[in-house]
């Protein structure tokens, strides 16, 4: 069973590594969840702003720690470039990832949570549907594992709430992300 799970994770990583520019932006539906501070946060807070989203979970023992470290590095780079961008990390394991757990996890990677929001406050079926419908990506939590299959992409969302592009989570994409953000501003 573990081999099957590892194969599924590998396939998801492989598929997400093949991502490229979206042919056309697609509009997101409104959402409101709970951030790492226990406060309501959602699309209303992001109206008129450029933001980057990803999917993570705190119990992840594979890609999430480097993804989160790279989101923190991207946060620093955006600040150094004087770009006003919000960062949003959606937990794909909401039963485990309470606001307090997310806050402690974030604190391992950054001391600046002013523009980074780790979200929870939904059930597993809701986040799986949200990812599929709004980001056109797969999330699946096998019943036989504590790990969750999910995208490793960073998604760029424009001021109108449209997902306009996705990027691999590696730092090598930062220059491309920054250039795309400058075009949106």
Automatic annotation (TrEMBL):
Q: Which residues form the Thioredoxin domain?
A: 22-185
Origin species:
Metabacillus litoralis
Q: What is the protein name stated in its UniProt record?
A: SCO family protein
Q: Where are the transmembrane segments?
A: none
Has the keyword Membrane been applied to this entry? no
The Swiss-Prot or TrEMBL record describes its family as follows: Belongs to the SCO1/2 family.
| Example of a GO MF term | metal ion binding
Query: Which residue positions does the secretion signal occupy?
Result: 1-17
Q: Which residues bind Cu cation?
A: 60, 64, 150
Q: Which SUPFAM superfamilies match?
A: Thioredoxin-like
